[in-house]
Write a structure and sequence with these properties.
Elements lengths: L9 H8 L3 H50 L5 H14 L5 E6 L5 E4 L15 E6 L8 E11 L3 E8 L1 H53 L13 H50 L4 H33 L7 E4 H18 L3 E5 L5 E4 L1 H18 L5 E9 L2 E8 L31 H11 L3 E6 L4 E8 L2
Parallel strand pairs: 7-9
Antiparallel strand pairs: 1-2, 1-5, 3-4, 4-5, 6-8, 9-10, 10-12, 11-12
Length: 468
């Protein structure tokens, strides 16, 4: 059973939590993070071991060079005095020393006896010895070497390596502790992030499911953060609103089609029934056929206009586009409609001297101008002035069709581009109310915009296209 509308239940989230792709991504990120930390810590550990040992060896060699350079002759008393003085001056020094004579007697130093390892002059070795100064006997690790002095004396020089050994142990322990903490924090952060993201995604998912039951009035809730999920929710809400408007528009179009086609279809049926009721002359039948053809043409014109609008709306690719001079399109329109305007006693002029190039389909652009001019002539009285203008303004090309007729009421302007939208005063006139709708979809296909403006008096249809 699915939870109630708008309710995000914890049991559902927990049931699907492990299968969440967000949670998996969090675990993958945690694994990569831990792997990178391990590589860094291991590299630092190896570097510390290598550099620490090299640093100790360098200091031991430096002391050996300094000591051997002082004793050029076998002055045993001087050797003892200098080594004792050095140890007194550096009481906390980590150095380890042992001076013996040729018979192995202890002369000076802080070691009691020679270590049980073979020391070769110039080579570093590790060995252990008991620390005399410690409260408890404890073996410390020493790294050192031996140097030969005059008179067969030998001096052991070394460093207490236990400190570095302790540091290495601390590094390993802290690295393990840090790794365990990183794993724990990674699991916590991944869980919290996955839970938060899954909860928000589930809200969006449930909204899409609720629209199947409750209709298109349901909207995705926002949390006001303005993040990616809020932007996604806004776009989904706009899409739902757009779908709702389209559905309402389709329902309205179906009603209007049924209303507008009912009259001509009824007339067709009535004429045929009347023609069959009694014998009529050849001229009577001819008149009935002519009237039926006119109504049939009107019905076909309505469907052709609808098909053209649907075809243009479905066309996402700009097929057949080329550079078109809008000034030339206006002049062509003027030449075609001038005789029609003169029959009604109207005057039509063109103001477009310079080339006004746009990238578009020439046939569709001509049809747009024909529709606008046809409306201007049809709904303007005798003696009206109709002006066609085209000019290039910066990066856009502007076309205007202006008349000084009755215009359109301000309250009707927002719905003027709707299909089958007509004023009540124009219901009995020819036309289907699809001309402006076709103009809008063609202009949008060309990346432009169209608007109707009160001309005071009359009406101005203003079209803007990107300049080629």
């Amino acid at each position: 059973m699915r939870p109630c509308a708008g309710q995000v239940t914890g049991w559902w989230l927990m049931r699907n939590f492990v299968r969440s792709r967000v949670y998996r991504y969090g675990l993958i990120y945690m694994g990569l993070f831990i792997a990178s930390v391990l590589i860094i810590l291991f590299s630092l550990y190896l570097l510390f071991m290598e550099r620490g040992e090299a640093l100790v060896d360098a200091k031991i060699r430096h002391e050996v060079e300094r000591i051997t350079s002082r004793y050029s002759e076998a002055d045993e008393a001087r050797m003892i005095a200098n080594l004792s003085f050095f140890m007194d001056v550096h009481p906390g020094y980590a150095g380890v020393y042992l001076l013996e004579d040729s018979r192995g007697r202890h002369l000076a130093g802080n070691l009691d006896h020679w270590p049980d390892v073979e020391l070769v002059p110039g080579q570093m070795e590790f060995f252990t010895h008991l620390d005399r100064q410690a409260k408890e006997d404890s073996a410390i690790l020493v790294r050192g070497t031996v140097c030969l002095l005059p008179g067969n004396h030998r001096l052991l020089v070394g460093r207490n390596y236990s400190i570095i050994k302790d540091i290495k142990f601390l590094l390993r322990r802290e690295a393990i502790d840090g790794l365990l903490i990183s794993i724990a924090l990674g699991l916590v952060v991944s869980t919290v992030m996955a839970f938060s993201l899954s909860r928000r995604l589930e809200r969006i998912n449930r909204t899409t499911l609720e629209t199947l039951d409750a209709g298109l009035d349901i909207r995705v809730p926002l949390n006001g953060s303005g993040d990616e999920f809020d932007r996604l929710a806004v776009n989904l809400n706009r899409m739902l609103g757009r779908i709702k408007r389209l559905m309402e528009s389709m329902e309205g179009v179906a009603d209007v089609i049924a209303h507008d086609l009912r009259s001509p279809l009824n007339r067709l049926k009535s004429r045929m029934e009347v023609g069959l009721l009694s014998d009529r002359t050849h001229e009577d039948y001819r008149t009935i056929l002519v009237e039926n053809v006119e109504d049939t043409d009107r019905i076909l014109s309505t469907f052709n206009s609808l098909l053209t609008i649907a075809k243009v709306r479905a066309s996402s690719a700009q097929v057949g586009f080329q550079t078109v001079d809008l000034a030339e399109v206006l002049r062509e329109t003027w030449e075609f409609y001038t005789p029609v305007a003169e029959e009604k006693g109207q005057v039509m002029t063109v103001e477009a001297s310079d080339p006004v190039p746009v990238n578009g389909n020439p046939d569709l652009l001509v049809q747009v101008m024909f529709n606008l001019v046809d409306n201007a002539i049809k709904y303007s009285p005798s003696g009206a002035l109709i002006t066609l203008t085209a000019e290039k303004e910066s990066s856009v090309c502007v076309v205007q069709v202006r008349d000084d007729g009755p215009g359109i009421p301000e309250h009707f302007l927002p719905s003027a581009f709707d299909r089958f939208s007509r004023l009540d005063s124009h219901r009995e006139s020819s036309g289907q109310g699809l001309g402006l709708s076709l103009v809008q979809v063609v202009v949008e296909l060309h990346g432009g915009s169209v608007e109707l403006v009160d001309g005071g008096p009359g009406l101005v249809a203003r079209l803007e296209f990107p300049s080629a």
